[in-house]
Design goal:
Blueprint lengths: L4 H11 L3 H20 L5 H10 L13 H9 L3 H10 L10 H21 L10 H9 L9 H11 L3 H12 L3 H4 L10
Helix pairs in contact: 1-3, 2-3, 2-6, 2-9, 3-5, 4-5, 5-6, 6-8, 6-9, 7-9
Amino acid sequence: MELTRDEAWSHLCSWTETDSLRKHARAVELVMRQAAHRYGDGDEETWGAAGMLHDADYEKWPEEHPNRIVAWLRERDEEELAYAISAHYTKWNVPYKNALDKALLACDELTGFIVACCLVRPEGVSTLKSKSVKKKLKDKAFAAKVERAEVHAGVELLGVELSEHIDFIIEALKPHAEELGIVGRDLHPA
């Protein structure tokens, strides 16, 4: 991968102005960096960049997502990233060729959902358990925009159990709770 993390972040920020979508990009980047070791070849830079950039064009061009970011990556000969981001957009029906493609699907929606769970808990991520997340997944009104079918398809593609994958994501997010704003109301430093 030729693209550096700094270049990827700069590009994301040029297209994404809202703090919430930037935090989502950062959260998925952090989870994907860990997923590189758990599910893949350990290439944190590539996996992290895929997580960071997967929704880079969503804010400015939601009706074209992910065409713009995929084209931008292909112009830079970043085909592996472009392909993974194409595959994460399930409406395109791009086949999943490798662990990176599968992991991005498995981590994207579920990371966003877990962050939403953290935001409504007084203790944030610190005491969150997979049982609570699974209960919230059944509540269609909670974080209604999260595609539950993609959550389940992602874990199936990875060949892992949902609770195990939820726990993995929670643990990947915990060290970054303050940066991501998921410390919780009761535990947030004054």
